[in-house]
Amino acid sequence: MPDEVGQAVARERLRSRLVELRRLSGLTPDAVTSRTHWSLSKLNRIETGAVTVQPLDAQALLQIYGIHDPGEVAALTDLAIAARRRQWWSGFQLESEVRDFVAYESTAARITAYQALHIPDLLQTEAYARMALTAAAGKKPDDPRVQSALELVMRRQTELDKRVRLTAVLDGAVLERRIGGAAVMRGQLDRLLQVVADQQVRLVVVPLRHGLMPGPGGGFELLEFAGAEDPDVVFVESPVRNVLIRDKDVIAGYHDAADTLIDSGLTKDAAIREIRRVRSDL
Fold this sequence. Notes:
Layout: H1 7-25, H2 29-36, H3 40-48, H4 55-64, H5 70-83, H6 96-105, E1 110-115, H7 126-137, H8 144-159, E2 165-171, H9 172-176, H10 182-197, E3 202-206, E4 220-224, E5 233-236, E6 243-245, H11 248-264, E7 266-267, H12 268-280
Parallel strand pairs: 1-2, 2-3
Antiparallel strand pairs: 1-4, 3-7, 4-5, 5-6
Helix pairs in contact: 1-5, 4-5, 7-8, 10-12
């Protein structure tokens, strides 16, 4: 993984440390805002991570909290700068949950993606992605929103660090569902066979014959990070609302679901045989 702390991780580290330092100082939010002359809502947005923190604002808070150690001040200032650094996804118009998800994904050390409806984004061919996005949006393939979403998927694939440990878990129905028609599906299944053969991805297929498996009904992406202090996050995408989950207890349930799905699925040669079986029927 890159040595540089990613934007989302930097933002979360700074946010959690500032909250911790305020509590250790014994100051209430009202006491802090009376000294900074900020509104209470501004401090709340900083402490909840709703906004990024200006480096000067971070330094002002550290002064109030009695933090004068040059090393810690410099480290937290660097986090504030990293959290505000413009990134490649800044050029896309994304809702906040998706933007934060992409930021986290860009610096994850381990990714576990489970899908019950379509091939996970990070393994889609461009042709398959276009047709999947078209169907999901209920628009034409040349619709600007479809094109923008397609560009985001392709860019996420390009930017994904090759050292990331990616586990993709596919419900058997994903292989059977002919998104885009036979030709598009053949190309997509060939892509899956290639990544398995190249050992780029740990691919798990849970065949339909294995029956209903416990766990979430929809797809999710579980992101884990190299830093022991950086908590896992889960992104859940749905037609109604995309959700980025940070609650440790909820995420523990997704870890359990992922383990159950992986343990029940086919891997390596068995997964390859299943994909080839489906391909032969196209």
